[in-house]
Amino acid sequence: MLSRAVLVALSLVLPSLVGAQLSVDLAGNRPATPGVTRTTLKDDAKYSVTRVVFSPGAGEVPHTHPYDIMIVPVKSGPAVIMVGDRKTTSVKAGEVQFVPHDVVHSVTNTGTVEFEVITVGIK
């Protein structure tokens, strides 16, 4: 049986070995991403609401969730939001991006100032 430390180490390393895709568990647990700050605003049995701030040039590795989420930009700006094969590069404040469960997605700040989104997970 593998120890917990080995399992944690594997969960951090394996995504980079298999196309940098990461699966996020129901609690939203994931490794820290440089330049990306997450603040949980609400997390209960039905919903997860998180504020995510991206420093200039920072982005997430492509990942999935076991539940549907909505990504809501707080302000307009240059960013790339990937949802499956769809790429959005002109991001407007309040323009909701729907991400079905288990669909690979990511957000990257391509601008020179911080970019912020609110994510709502529907568990």
Report on the structure:
This protein has 123 residues and is mainly beta. It has a single domain, classed as Jelly Rolls, CATH 2.60.120. It is built from one helix and ten strands, in the order αββββββββββ. It has one helix at residues 4-17, and strands at residues 22-23, 36-43, 47-54, 63-64, 68-73, 77-83, 86-91, 97-99, 105-109, 115-122. The longest helix has 14 residues, at 4-17. The chain is globular. The N and C termini lie far apart (31 Å).
User: H/E series, N to C?
Assistant: HEEEEEEEEEE
What's the number of structural domains? 1
CATH topology: Jelly Rolls
Reading off the top of the CATH hierarchy, the class is best stated as: Mainly Beta
Quick one: biggest sheet? Answer: 5 strands, antiparallel
Q: Which quaternary structure do these chains form?
A: single chain
List segments where confidence is low: pLDDT < 50 over at least 5 consecutive residues.
5-20
Terminal Cα span: 31 Å
Q: Tell me the number of helical segments per DSSP (H or I, 4 or more residues long).
A: 1
Give the DSSP E fraction (strand runs of 2 or more residues): 35-45%
Q: What is the count of β-strands? A: 10
Percent helix among the residues?
10-25%
Rounded mean pLDDT is 83
| Outline type | globular
Counting helices, strands and paired strands, the structural category is: mainly beta
The CATH superfamily title: Jelly Rolls
